[in-house]
Amino acid sequence: MNSFIDHFNIARMPAAAEAFRVEVRDFLAAEAPSAPADARARSWVAADPAFSRKLAQRGWVGVTLPKAYGGAELDAFHRFVLVEELLASGAPVAAHWVADRQSGPLILRFGSPFQKDFYLPKITAGEAFFCIGMSEPNSGSDLASVRTRATKVDGGWKLNGSKIWTTNAHHCRYMIALVRSSGTVEDRQKGLSQFIVDLQLPGVVVRTIEDMTGDAHFCEVLFDDVLLSDDALVGAEGAGWSQVNAELAFERSGPERLYSSVVLIDCWIEKLRTRGTLDAHVETIGRFATQLTALREMSLSVTARLAAGETPLVEAAVVKDAGTEFEQMAPAIIEGLLGSDPADRLDDELVRACAYLSQFSPTFSLRGGTREILRGMIARGLGLR
Prior knowledge:
The protein is an alpha+beta fold and 385 residues long. It is 47% helix and 14% strand. The protein has 13 helices and 8 strands. The protein has helices at 3-6, 15-31, 37-40, 49-57, 76-89, 94-110, 113-124, 240-253, 262-275, 282-307, 313-338, 348-360, 371-381; strands at 130-133, 149-153, 156-167, 174-180, 192-198, 204-209, 218-229, 233-234. The strands form 2 sheets. A 4-stranded mixed beta sheet has the order 1-4-5-8, with helices on one face. A 4-stranded antiparallel beta sheet has the order 2-3-7-6, with no helix packed on it. Strand 2 and strand 3 (156-167) form a beta hairpin. The two termini are 21 Å apart.
């Protein structure tokens, strides 16, 4: 038996977490905005602060954070169920998404007492939305090559540089940015630190970038002599690389890496059922079901390790890589089937949802680490590099 495969031990969803699913579905039935499939397929990038605050009022933003900070103090399995139901319904999650998934847990793990007391209650109340500051122009997926620099000055740090492909920065108040605080670009992982940047500070400019679907959720964020206080540094100076890798384990392994196309699959199956043509596509439906089931089991096994306090970085990369393959494959297959019969009268809602995901799905293997980077990590984890 390959020892690496053993890292994906079967994990069972606790009964309490499954019971929580009923509560979440009841909430979504009452509070989730009704929308056509092409709008719900944008769940990942759709920012609706009002909806996020309704979730927060139920204690479901920062759901794993301690009650002392306003969190629900539930385990990672409860969060898995919550995310799974939100994405399956197509709820607009983008406003609180990053703060809930990784900024809050990062601050809880590495933040100062001031940062925990100041930011975590705002996150759990749905009052502070965060974005991620990792990618930079001309760096591609080479995260260790960041050039944005924080220079120590009296009373704090001066920040210069830029970040790009930052999702929904124009809707967020804060960014946690990975920047170089000492040394040179040639030092690679050494000399990197994480800072919390208030995006309303003088010297910060946020520009949206329109994608080929016509949406504008990606952003470029520029820093020109932005003065940060000493309280902005997260964790130890120079420890940014290890901290950001712990953060990425949260980002890459959850059900959000499997469900980006599930609204389209559900819509397609429903249309087939309505037209009485379901039996003609049982092989494709079975293929989707078996692949999604296997991926979900892998994601659950990583969730169990995160719940145990481990940092399964390589295993999370496997889930993310395989999950995005599925997310990209589904719209391509459905698009091909929709176009296979020129005489077929197509459903407008289904076509719009399929067209959106066909255009947008290439980004699935870019966000959270490109396919090439992840496969390099997996190869090193297997001892092949």
